[in-house]
Specification:
- The protein is an alpha/beta fold.
- It folds into 2 domains: about 210 residues, Rossmann fold, CATH 3.40.50; about 190 residues, Rossmann fold (3-Layer(aba) Sandwich).
- It has 16 helices and 14 strands.
- The chain has an 8-stranded mixed sheet, with helices on both faces. A 6-stranded parallel sheet has the order 11-10-9-12-13-14, sandwiched between helices.
- The longest helix has 25 residues.
- Pfam families: Glyco_trans_4_4 (PF13579), Glycos_transf_1 (PF00534).
- It comes from Ideonella margarita.
- This is Glycosyltransferase family 4 protein.
């Protein structure tokens, strides 16, 4: 099949997040399909920005559209979104003529790309897929405090209902969305759950060595006799990293060092907080390349992931970094209240209530008191869980099976 994958924030190992579109597309290419990835040349989640042009990465045809840079989640980001969608809309006939898609996927996190994807699918006579990362407008309303009557929230709501009505297939990373989507007009026969996962290739090859400053920080912690609690991922409000710092502040005298790698909107404030409070047991060392994540996780003892206490998580969670943690065999300290809990399902760590430093400290103490054999068994269970259900070869095939069931393929129409 020819697949046109519309993802504003698409990334790659060389560019940084988002990784999911790259890994799915790479599996489809390996299976003999042709994939064209359409993205913006600026995204706040990437570590490096591409040039507005075309390029081929591991058999995937990337087409980057020029968009204005921005910071934060204000008007600049809205202008960036609008610029991207306008250009793809204008170029739709040319994109269809050049790539002749059998499947068009709208997957830009925000739902407004459904209108552009619908235009592309109609021009091509292709199957239209809506891929749900987060539930917009609920995510900005419940996570960021946006008013439900804000013009942007109303626009997102209109787009969401359009997507559920018009898409031939809806793919959701979140596992508990059925009632919500049905309430907004989705025929649940269209819905397939395809969570995030890992690429086995990333774990079979020799991992890239850690940056010297990261390796040195971990080595110094070990020399001091400390257990190393690691965090690898975004530094934004949804990650609730203030709770981790609160816990670290209350454990200044404990033989534990927290090592954080990553970047994001909250990075500057959190780093300043570490300095202001003189948290000598916390080390922020900037982002590291995707290829170094296995080395980082192999070097630490325990891995941390936390969430805000917000109603949106009743629909479930599907965090990329948690899959990496489990694949690395790291026992996990998980601060969450959600519709699902992969850590509890896998039996690979300790889950505690979110936004509670006391709970994090209690959970950490539980893991510290576990024997080396008990922690090793946790890690092994986590790895087995990922290999059974969350590898991209398995997930990519599940995604395409849903498309085939809707009639996708050469010479067919939805």
């Amino acid at each position: 099949m020819n697949i046109l994958y519309l993802n504003h924030y698409a990334g790659s190992p060389a560019l940084g997040m988002e990784y999911r579109p790259y890994y799915l597309a790479r599996e489809w290419v390996r299976a003999g399909h042709k994939v064209t990835m359409v993205g913006a040349d600026f995204s706040h989640v990437r570590s490096r920005q591409p040039t507005a042009s075309s390029e081929v990465v591991d058999g995937i045809d990337y087409r980057w559209f020029k968009t204005p840079a921005y910071q934060g989640n204000g008007l600049g980001r809205v202008k960036n979104i609008a610029a991207f969608l306008k250009q793809v809309w204008q170029q739709a006939p040319a994109l269809v003529a050049a790539h002749k898609p059998d499947v068009v996927i709208a997957s830009s996190t925000y739902p407004m790309d459904i209108w552009v994807a619908r235009r592309l699918a109609r021009l091509a006579g292709a199957t239209l897929v809506f891929e749900v990362h987060d539930l917009w407008p609920l995510s900005p309303i419940e996570l960021s405090g946006m008013s439900p009557w804000h013009p942007f929230a109303l626009l997102c709501g209109w787009a969401e209902k359009t997507a559920y009505r018009c898409a031939d297939v809806v793919i959701s990373m979140l596992p508990k969305v059925h009632a919500h989507m049905a309430s907004r007009g989705l025929d649940l026969r269209k819905l397939t759950i395809v969570p995030n996962g890992i690429s086995p290739d990333d774990w079979q090859q020799q991992p890239e060595p850690l940056k010297p400053e990261v390796a040195q920080a971990i080595a110094q912690a070990r020399q001091a006799g400390h257990t190393v609690l690691g965090y690898a991922g975004s530094m934004g409000l949804p990650n609730a990293l203030d709770t981790l710092l609160d816990a670290a502040a209350s454990m200044r005298s404990a033989p534990v060092s927290v090592v954080m790698v990553g970047d994001g909107h909250e990075r500057a404030r959190l780093v300043q907080r570490i300095a202001d409070e003189q948290l000598a047991n916390v080390h922020w060392l900037g982002p590291i390349p995707k290829a170094q994540i296995p080395s980082f996780l192999a070097a630490i003892d325990l891995a941390y992931i936390g969430w805000q206490r917000v109603p949106i998580y009743r629909f479930g969670i599907a965090p990329n970094k948690l899959m990496d943690y489990l694949m690395a065999g790291c026992p996990v300290l998980h601060a969450v209240e959600a519709g699902n809990d992969p850590v509890a399902e896998a039996g690979c760590g300790v889950t505690v209530p979110p936004e509670s430093a006391e709970a994090v400290v209690s959970g950490l103490n539980t893991l510290l008191q576990a024997s080396p054999d008990e922690r090793r068994a946790m890690g092994e269970r986590g790895r087995a869980f990922v290999l059974a259900e969350h590898t991209y070869p398995v997930l990519a095939e599940r995604f395409l099976q849903a498309c085939r069931a809707a009639g996708a393929g050469p010479g067919t129409s939805p």
